[in-house]
Amino acid sequence: MTEPSHVPVLLDRVLDLLSPSLTKPGSVVVDATLGLGGHAEALLTEFPDVHVIGIDRDPVALDRARARLEPFGDRVTYAQAVYDEIGEVVSAAGHDHVAGVLFDLGVSSMQLDVADRGFSYSQDAPLDMRMNPDDELTAALVLNTYSAQDLARVLRNYGEEKFAKRIAEAVVAQRENEPFTTSARLVDLIRDSIPQAARRTGGNPAKRSFQALRIEVNDELGALTRALPAALDALEVGGRVVVLAYHSLEDRLTKQAFARVTRSNAPRDLPIVPVEMLPKFKLVTRGSEQAAEEEIAANRRAQSVRLRTVERIAA
Predict the structure, then answer these.
(1) Which one, of 251, 258, 214, 45, lies nearest residue 117 by Cα?
(2) Which of 12, 41, 55, 243 registers the highest number of CB atoms within 10 A of its CB?
(3) Distance CA 207, CA 185 (A)
């Protein structure tokens, strides 16, 4: 039985949105954030003729997904890569285009649950936060080497932290005595750096800073900025990209990327729009969709999700 924390978010809606693109036998879907393989398992079960290309930068996640999806045999191709490498992965798998791409962004429940990965602020652990353990940059390295100005920029831009400057200055002051190595000390520093009134709302005051450090360590927004156009380029006509985002920064990038490809380049007063100026994509969802209260009650991770979908309508 799947643990509640590992239940895929908006699973039925994802299947519904991808279904029109998967009518042809042998259709290929890229799960660009394979994780534990929950969405992929559902796709393979629901659509018996579909082939899934599963991408994840985390080798531990890939091993677990491979074990979970073993019953589907050669209907799954695995790739250890960052999702901005979609084009190369699809080509290496022997395909020119795909029928669908799914992004389930952010940190996975598996990464949060494994204490020594350092993603969670709720348990003391090494300040790691690397999705790929082979990468060089860690959260500890960011905290112990970035200038106060650069650290404040990370916390402000990626965590939307109002007190970024105060936290950054406190980190720089304290690391002179002892470098930061574990999360509990950082959580305490953040709590002490934030005014008491601000600690009473919005949950754990360390949440925003931990999000910011994770994004910096893994270049998540940079990778997403590159991955969305790559995913759109990989789509065949009738294919769809579905994105599940969990904070405003990811959702804003997705919204902007989809807006660019779904609007016409023609002047507004042009009586007849040339074909080459017509958009090659259309929005399938208007705005972003959220999870229902029932799903949020059963799966806490669904609380912040925002879903957007686009479809290729011309080559």
Answers:
(1) 214
(2) 243
(3) 14
Q: Which amino acid is at 150?
A: D
Model confidence pLDDT, tens digit, residues 222-258: 999 999 999 999 999 999 999 999 999 999 999 999 9
pLDDT tens digits for range 117-146: 667 777 889 999 999 999 999 999 999 999
The strand pairing partners of 312, in sequence order, are 281
Q: What is the separation of C-alpha 230 from the centre of its chain, rounded to a whole number of angstroms?
A: 15
Which residues, 6+ apart, have CB-to-CB distance to 1 below 8 Å?
Answer: none
Q: Give the CA count within 13 Å in the CB-facing half-sphere of 294.
A: 1
Q: Is the pLDDT of residue 202 over 70?
A: no
Q: In terms of pLDDT, which residue wins out, 34 or 108?
A: 34
The CB density around residue 88, as the number of other CB atoms within 10 Å, is 12
CB 243 within 8 A of CB 308: yes
Tokens of 169: 């200055």
- The single residue listed with the structure tokens 């045999």 is 73
Q: Which pLDDT score, from 0 to 100, does residue 108 have?
A: 61
| DSSP code, position 201 | S
Query: For residues 142 and 60, what is the distance between their CA atoms, to the nearest angstrom?
Result: 24
Q: Determine how many CB atoms are found less than 10 A away from the CB of residue 53.
A: 24
